[in-house]
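Researcher: Please generate the 3D structure of the following complex. Treat every line as part of one assembly.
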Amino acid sequence: MARKSWHLNRRQLIQGTGVAMALPYLNAMGMVASRANDAPAVEAATMPRRFIGTYISYGVYQPDGQSGIPRRDKEGNCEHHEWSWWPQGNPGKLKSFNKSTAPFEPLRDNITYLRGLDHKGVYRLGGHSSGDVFLTGADMAEVETTNNISIDQLMANHHGHQTRHASLVMGTEGGTGSYLRTKTMSHRGPGKPIPSLHKPDEIFNRLFHPYGNQGIEQVRAGLKRDSSILDLMMEHSRSFHADLGKQDKRKLDEYLESVREIEKRVERTRDWTHTPLPEVDRDSLNLTVDHKTGPAEYIRVMYDLAYLAFVTDQTRYATYMTESEQSSSSELWNYANYVLGYKGATHDIAHKRPQVISGKWDLWRAENHAYFLKRLADTEEGDGTMLDNTLCLWGSAHPHSSHSGLNYPLQLAGGKNMGLKHGQLLEFVGDQKVPMANLFVTLLHAMNIPAEKFADSSGNLDQLLGG
Amino acid sequence: MFDRSSNPGHLLKGFLFSILAWVGPLLATGQTPVEAGKVGYASRVKPFFETYCVKCHGPDKSKGEITLHTLRGDLSVGGGLEKWESILDILDFGEMPPIDEPQPQPSEVEAIIQWIESEMRLQVKNASQRVPEPKARRLTNVEFQNTLNELLGFELDVIDDLPEDPELHYGFNNSAGLMRMGPEQLNRYLEIARKAMRAAIVDPKKPEPYQKRRQWTSIGRDRGMALDELGIWGNRRGSVAGGMGMRDLPKHGEYRLRMQASGIVPPGYTEVPLKIDMGTQPGPTETPFKTVAKLYLTNTPDEPKVFEFRGRIENHPTSLVRSGKQGPLVREMTIKPRIFYDNGTHNDGANYAKIRQLAMPRAVINWIEIEVPVVDVWPPQHHTKILFPSPLRESDESAYVRQVLKRFMGRAYRRPATAPEVDRFAKLFRIVRPGVQTFEDAIRETLSMVMISPQFLYHTESSPATNQHHAMASKLAYFLWASMPDAELLDLAAQERLDNDKVIRQQVQRMLEDDRSHAFVENFTLQWLSIRKMLTVPINEKLYPRFLYRVSAGETRGTEVPYLITVRDFMMQETVGFVGELIRGNRSVLNVVDSDFAFLNERLARHYGIEGVRGMEMRPVPVAPKDQLGGLLTQGSVLIGNGTGTAPHPIYRAVWLREAILGDHVPPPPSEVPALEETAGGATEEALSIAELLAKHRTVESCNDCHFRLDPWGIPFEDYNAIGRFQPRVPRDGTRVSGFNADKHGDLAGYQAYLDEINTVKVNSRARVPHGPEVDGMRELKNFLLTQRRDDIVENVIRRLLTYGLGRQLTFRDRFAVDAICKQAEKTDFGMRDILVFICLSDVFREETRRRQDKKD
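Model: Done. Output below.
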């Protein structure tokens, strides 16, 4: 029987969870990092800063109030349901974890829940379309109808050159989807969704086995030739482009840009051939799993790949759309059936909100995400853990059963080394309400990107950085 | 909208009159036409809106996000035309004002409609002076694969290597807006092009083919089935059912598979349907087999026949296995024959199978052999088509390369390549050549680059390098074949004859008779009717235990794999085949609502309860009203896709009917409305009747606003259950359906008894159609549609076909073009094939090619 993805054997664990080579940042000083109080600040500054955005769809279970905000009693205490997506009712320090959030309890000091944030640009488009802008905040209803750049890509534009891959874009369903039915979280800019990768073996090969069976000199010679060929292709396409009408030209711009981008990548790949690839044991992962046959296993292999990409420093920015808002034509539609034996489509849970099934569905998703966070938290890096150097945003832009796009359920984890303070449930409601883009500004700051504004931001949430 | 003054069939209008007659007192005075332009707007149109509409669609309320108080009387103002068009449609359909609001006189409505129409016509006329240029669009994945295969001359499966194309429910994905390009996409094209060229161009040395043969003896016939016999179930170990395993096959090349087979056809059967699969053992994590061929055996074991099939080995999945404990990894593949006869009898294990197996159709396969690659002719034809024999190759390599490029590019670009285009790739060849070992390698790489040029990847009919005739050849081919033009079309284009009506007419007829048109029918039908979602509806296997055949392939729930081709797969074929039959037989478009035939095989016929259909091949079968079939509305694919898998879903079905058949656009559910259960209360996920929930939902006003126009369209479908069968009775709500017992209910009669046992409550399928009469069930709904909404239905199908054919959304500019085709269609009794001819001959289809020509002149 195929090995489950998370059943790594002991040997692999000792060798760094399937990674056989010396790793760039993993305990660079020796087998066990010193836990001395005087953590060298220099080291923190040179640590990689990473980001991953993951998405869940069709909302979460929030029976304690309308529109994702709990009802309050006379004393101002929030109602709370044992199966609510939120760990506790009242904002403030994280004190208790309910049934749905139990997997996060061990991570209490590394997570923050954020209530009341959302993107107003898609209010009018309804919940099924808001997944498109989860990481972009674009005003797709009116102005930016073809969406806009997502924060992971903005980060990659600034710092992506430091790693072999600028970013890693994954999705359970793969591809781009279409407007307002996206299947990817990442967008280069208006009209440029990045197709998400959904085949684990393909992602693995791209990350760790990109040259196939070729020798490095052969690869380099090939890449050099590719450069000259692409130059010529560019010339060829440009002259064709020049003869076209205006509309055609605009459409073919996409093509030209793609050629240019591939040229750049060839250059980049060439440069990186001088850096050895990490050796990762292919057999440590079950790469042939697919979501038709093993939902949890599939999702965890994908998380594992993100983890491996981070731990080997192949990239620092990743997104993973674990579920899309339009999964009716994929097997994802049946996940709740496979996982919980639920009689309807996964989407029906959102509408019918059967109490325990809804809770268990949220719990299942929480278990998968917590699995990933724990892997980061269990991996020492410098003077802390990988989680301390990785911002993990997790949530949905389709919060409720009623197609609303208000008040997203959001959890932010990790990033202590970037100044993040955790262990709270923060609420932004009433006159405290601010755009979710404010959070993005702060995430960018945490990444050392001096941004004053992103999408419709009206400021920042730098209080998360401990101010 | 047909010419309503001369068309007495515009019955809806008549219908509206009759409603209004009892809604309120009417002044019987006729209305004078509204004066043209702003004068008319101010004097009649604006007051009309203010009286009947602005209350709900004005400054205070804007239901449906439509406001009318801000309109000006000038239709040319900033994009207002679309808005006017939707107003026109709503008035036209008689949808507004709501029935419980004060109603205008019908003659006044008519006058307003006429004013809007004539103003629009004026705008369209002005606008067509400056029609926007067409946009180049990239090929869809299906078009790309077909084009590749036509170009290379063999079939290579590449769709799975590409990011999935976006889907647009009820719309088509072949528009410029949806067909995007990014570096990732382009990279995939390059990988595929290289793979294709590796397959198309062979190395000069004739390879030693891989050969394998296995035979089975008839020993054991006296103890049940012999080793060379293949039954549906319960096959013996070591028998032909295990197939033939192969190791270390070549990666590339054409294969030839031969076998000797015959059929044992028991009384009551007509044939043995046999399928030959090749690939890896299907397991929970592997890509399953790919079918080599299907055949229907009727020859007896006394006269065995030899069958031969060819295909590409690249298309069949292999698995890597270790040979020996520490041995090297080798590629493995199996050829597996399988009988796919299925009459719906439940397969519940070997015991049952043993009793039945000898009474069921069996195949006898004496031997199977395979050879890869086929080397009868070397190099193979697909190679010499590109690298043709010529003395030039030795004497002047660069001249030879130019000729090779010219030939290849002339087809790849679907038009003659220009000299500078050929020059550039000749240069590319020179860059590539020193870095690779062989001439063939250099050609492969060069031609791969041709295949990622925009001229190959995009529809570039509007580029100046393409003349009117080649543009037309491509337009026709991508419309009717979803592929590139064949030699005949390219020849006609070269002779500059594709501007001739007679030639176009002949070509359309020829193309529709060609097998390649299947790609069009399938592509068009599945998208238009939004059929694919049917495949992912989770069928309640307690309620419908025999719908899906799954066998456990793993240890945990959810790892079951389909055992046979299921009835669900045949349902896709049913719908595609049905539409194909309308085209093939030039039958009326109105068959989409009701028809005197269905497109079935034995399995489907059993499912629907039609007697006397034998054999697994799909074909048109006459049906009578008592069969409760006919048209698209009652096809399993539609009914299942628009249900929950447990219960029929009136809303899904209503939306489907309005979108796919009537051509209305149904807006998505708005933000922040209470969900169905919140208003209907205490329903479980196992609701057996959604119709009842909806009835409660409609008692809430904010819900009723939309649902009163939606639900009634779905209620008449209630007699058809969640697996697409006519079943006017359902289980009592709250019933726990778990009584299925394979022993008791195993055969068809037992299964029926089980269903009768649990289904005890008569369904209510009676509803009042919005602004229409009450209809009781499907039959009356169909009658209503055919008599009262005929024109809308015809117009809708024409619009869908035209949208698909043009590869872009229709705009207000196309309104009158659609009208013209509708009128032509009416004269030929709405024949589907005629309609396709009219579309291909229409100005709107041809104008893009002509206009470019004008520009050049």
